[in-house]
Amino acid sequence: MTSPAAAPRYKAPPDRELVPRAMVRAMAGLVFSVLALVSVYVYTGQPRISTPPEAAITLERTVFLNGEMSGAATVLDANGTLIGRLSPQEGGFIAGVGRVLDRERTKHGVALTGPVTIIGRADGRVSIHDPSTGWRADLMGFGQDNARAFVRLLTP
């Protein structure tokens, strides 16, 4: 049996607070200040200044992605030829991107079966673009292994 002194403390003694109210108010003020600053910046139409520069496109390929909940993925080229049928171990990230595409297309009310464009740039960056919704993602932000999975699809 444990003594009351060794038990973890979940409540402060009645005369003390675990987190001072001033600290909670300061954090709430900080959050609302940042929200206000970002809102003013967006609503006044200020340009985005922290986006990576657009390098020249060196490779581009149109594909159809079909991602399953299990992580398996099927990739077809623009002509409908099978590029790859990936198992859940191989296609987890590609299937995840396919599910994101399905969600975006559902939000926009467009067909779920449209093509996407995988773009390789001169600076080594790889991105994916869905022309039916305008959605795009820079795949380098998801790590080298995940970007490499799409580079393999990009090269014929």
Essential attributes:
156 residues; alpha+beta; 6-stranded antiparallel sheet; extended
Rounded to the nearest angstrom, the distance between the terminal CA atoms is: 67 Å
Query: Quick one: how many beta strands?
Result: 6
Name the overall outline.
Answer: extended
Main sheet: which strands, in order across? 3-2-1-4-5-6
Major β-sheet profile: 6 strands, antiparallel
Q: State Rg.
A: 24 Å
Rounded mean pLDDT is 81
Order of helices and strands: HEEEHEEEH
Low-confidence stretches: none
- Binned, the helix content reads 25-40%
Q: What structural category do the secondary elements indicate?
A: alpha+beta
Beta-strand percent range:
15-25%
**Count of helical stretches:** 3
What would a concise description of this structure say?
The protein has a domain at 57-154. The protein is built from three helices and six strands. It has helices at residues 21-43, 92-108, 144-154, and strands spanning 57-67, 73-77, 82-86, 116-121, 126-129, 136-138.
